[in-house]
Amino acid sequence: MKRKDILMILVPIFIIVVFWIGFSIYHGIVSSTISEVENLQITPISPDFDTKTIQGYQEKIFRIRVGDYRILYEIDYEINQIGIIKIDKRSRVYS
Known about the structure:
- By secondary structure, the chain is an alpha+beta fold.
- The protein is 41% helix and 28% strand.
- The protein has helices at 3-30, 36-42, 90-93, and strands at residues 51-54, 61-66, 69-76, 81-89.
- The chain starts with a helix and ends with a helix.
């Protein structure tokens, strides 16, 4: 075989190998290896909720907006517990 023939074979193989390695790295980054249960342990409160911190209380109190209603709650991280303080319409919940 001539040198040109060997190059004609090696260049496409090299390109294929580079793309294969690149795709493997991309797939490893994109696909998550964390199961759904472990993900819930890491982030127990979904970031999709409309959750905000309520000002004016001594404790750190949060609220979730559900339509016209508001749910006020506090989180005790030491004992892994969420306490519901109040559920009411927006006009009455903050009074």
